Structure formats: structure tokens, C-alpha cells
Amino acid sequence: MKAEKGFTLLEVMVALAIFATLAAAVMSASQYVLGQSARVEARLFGAWLADNHLTDMQLQSVPPAVGQQTFDVTYAQRDWRLSRHITVEPGTGLLRVELRVSPAGSEQAVQSVTHWLAVRHD
Question: Which residues does residue 85 pair with via DSSP β-bridges, in sequence order?
């Protein structure tokens, strides 16, 4: 009698179980990487938005108003909320600018920046 070649049902099931376990691990790792990538992208856009806002403030001929202000901005095809708090630094002639950038509808800031502006006396 001739010996039959091929895999037994048990061998096929073990191979499928190993493949399913590996596939689940790869899916979990890829979801983690995609989530991290989205967070890094949001932080990068938040940093660019804060940098652009600070540059605009520096280019203005009139110093910005002291106090708290909130702006809703569309940037990189997303809606953002930019909160700005400006105080006068006593005895320095500087304005302290604190910016917080968060996605619209979220209180979680993706970027926080503190910057000082010189008050011009033209």
C-alpha cells in the first residue's frame, strides 16, 4: 500500500491557530502605531499653529491686548481652538504670552507654548 502524502487535519488546525495568533498581534501593533502617528501629527500641527500665531503677533505694529482670548481656527483642514493668555512682566517691558492649542471640541491641549514679546516704543 502506498503512503499518502499531505497534512493531517490536526496539523492544519495548529498552523491556522499559529497564523491567527500572529495576525492578531500584527493588528494590535498596527493599531497602536496608527494611534501614535495621529497624536504626533496633531502635536506637529498644533506647534505650527502656535508658531504662526506668535509670528503674526510679532509682526503687528500694535501690541496685542493683555488678557485672555480664545480663537477658533481652521488649519490643515481641521478645526482648532487656540487659547491665548497675555500678561505684562513687571519691570521688563515684555509681554508674557501663553498659548494652548487643542482640537475643536476638546479641552485636551496638544501643544502649550510660553513666549515673551518685547513691547515696541516707536
Answer: 68, 98
The mean per-residue pLDDT over the stretch 45-73 comes to 93
- % residues pLDDT > 70 (the chain): 96
Q: What is the pTM of this model?
A: 0.75
In whole angstroms, give the CA distance from residue 56 to residue 34.
33
Q: Are strands 67-75 and 111-118 parallel, antiparallel or unpaired?
A: unpaired
The owner of cell 497624536 is: 39
Residue tagged 481641521 (cell numbers)? 78
Cα 28 off chain centre by: 21
Complete domains list, the chain, with CATH:
9-118 (3.30.1300.30)
Whole-angstrom distance, CA of residue 103 vs CA of residue 46: 9
Instruction: For residues 89 and 92, give the distance between their C-alpha atoms in angstroms, rounded to a whole number.
Output: 6
